[in-house]
Amino acid sequence: MARFSNGPDHIRRRALALSLLDSVGDLREAAFARTREIVAGFETFDVMAEIARPVPVGTLASALGLPDVSADVALVAAAYHPHVVPGAAAEAALGRLITACGAADELAAARIGLLVQACDATAGLIGNELFAWLSGKAVGQPVLATRRRIGGEDVTVPLAGTPFGAGPRACPGSRHANALATGVLAALRGFRLTAGETTWVSSPNLRMPAVLRVTRG
Ligand code: HEM
Does pTM surpass 0.90? Predict the structure, then answer.
């Protein structure tokens, strides 16, 4: 995938990802409808587990012509950085994603790359915006630093106030992510935070809720 490629491989793989994103229409309505359907069954629930993680990936997968592979994408997303050694569950999930995408080629890698990149970052965007909206306390950007693979080394690059990055590796999905977040948040009107049950992801690179419980009314 583009994210951990360099030189001509990065340029070609990024162009493939961009052309796939160009083929995707406005995701706002689809994210709204998907969220509404899920929350209809709940009074009190954890937004991160039920909505912020599965809905963006499920909506994007459907727009890319794929089945709802959000559970497998979450497993792969937790394991795809070069410094992490993937376990058996992540490898099995990746195998199923490749099957869902048809073949182990660059097109499949581009599709999987989009879904994996969308997963935690868009969950963070939604979690932070919802928390700020319901609590009145600003949280800031969910992704604080990015990792690159340069000359075989893993390098951490601080994002310093540019939530979607900048330059030739800037996030190509910012418009899609914002549309997904807007649709999800519109569908969560009418919910409020339950008292004192927000916990935060413990990672130096991420600032986003791990658990964000809300209830109706
Ligand atoms: C639909 C949702 C999203 C998709 C499809 C997506 C897709 C991608 C892809 C394919 C890349 C790699 C680009 C490359 O290497 O040339 C990327 C990079 C990046 N994305 Fe996203 N993304 C999404 C959501 C987000 C969100 C919500 C954030 C943060 C608020 C974010 C922040 C970033 C950053 C900072 C990079 C740059 C990484 C670097 O410079 O090394 N993305 N994204």
Answer: yes
pLDDT tens, 53-80? Answer: 999 999 999 999 999 999 999 999 999 8
**Atom number in ligand 1 closest to CA 141:** 30
Distance, CA 217 to ligand 1 centroid (Å)? Answer: 34
15 C-alpha to center of ligand 1: Å? 14
Place of tokens 């899920």: 38
Q: In angstroms, what is the span from residue 195 Cα to ligand 1's centroid?
A: 33
- Helices 106-135 and 174-187: crossing angle in degrees, nearest 10, is 50
Nearest-CA residue for ligand 1 atom 43 is 171
Intra-chain end-to-end CA distance of the chain, in Å: 43
Positive/negative CA dihedral, 116, 117, 122, 123: positive
The CATH number of the domain covering residues in 2-216: 1.10.630.10
Element (H, E) at 187: helix 174-187
The protein residue with its alpha carbon nearest to ligand 1, atom 12, reads 3
Give domain limits for the chain: 2-216
